[in-house]
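Two entries, shown back to back:
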Amino acid sequence: MKKIDIDDELYQYIASNTQSIGESASTILRRLLNLSDGTLTTSHSTTTNTEQEISVVESEEDTEQHTESAASESKSQPAVTATTYAKGNVFNVLNKEELAMQKGVVGRFLFILAALYRTHKDDFVNVLDIKGRDRVYFATSKEALLESGSSMNPKNITDTEYWVMTNSNTTRKKMMLHEVALCLGYTADEAEKIRDYL
């Protein structure tokens, strides 16, 4: 399997076309491009000895049709509203395959938090209010976490300015994920699903 870099806008487009939790990007793209056996019939491809590049160009008219289609689908499905799409939904971003590749509980914990941050950058500051009885769980610096208690084992949430305490058992980490999900506007049922990814 080859890896490619894509910009955030394209990633969000692919993620917004997810039909089931944990669906891989390859599956989504195959569905969108009407591919079944790995052959490409309508887009341009260039092959070299070491890599394959696939370029799919979508016209502005097609983009508008996809946008209108997504808007009408969101109206017909009560569980996913237009507001949810605008704010983002972590279920469109979390990929079970990538999650399974993370090292241990701490790796999965940080991966889920990073996905929540990418989806809710503006609201993520609310996690700073989540605290334990004697110590804080989140901070904007490693030092702030270390000041709140000993043996915090602070870790940076990937690609963010936030740090999280990781020296807690799995049950506590699940509780923290549940609280994060609730403070970012997810329902109790959705928060439980996010917690259970750990």
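entry 2 starts here
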Amino acid sequence: MASKLKHNWLLSRAEAADLLRKLADTLEQESDDLAEYGISLAELVKFKVKVDLGHEDALEVKFTGKGIKVCGAEDPCGSGVVCESYSKLKKRMQIYFKAMRESIANGEMPSREIVSVFLSDSERMISYHGYGDEYYPAYAEICERLRLAFDQEDQAAIAAVVEELIQSKKSCHDRYK
């Protein structure tokens, strides 16, 4: 599943300033580690720091981070795409899948761009672990059939494969959502 990180501290103003300063230095130096605070930015896609000034002697500092990067430092997404969270990827896939379904419902071929982006995102999606890994091989096979049907410009085959994708998605989402 996606990484989630939460820390809450009660710190003096000087300690809170030190934490924020070290966080800024970590970002500026393109480092990932704030070990003394138990924070590693390496796997996070985004984070938020909230400082509550309501306490007299101490400040409540809340750090939350989430997401998981697909790309490691050694593999900077050869596609040039910035690493993104699983939820953002899935939202984009949903938009392109809907556009594909609408084209088919209108008796038209989906555009090359729509199919290409959907298939590329599908490949990226199955690289995320913990989101239905056991469904990934079958899903990859269905995507390959979509690619072949599209290359052959076979609307009937595309429609059939899209129906398979709908069933595959339903099976996985019933279990994981």
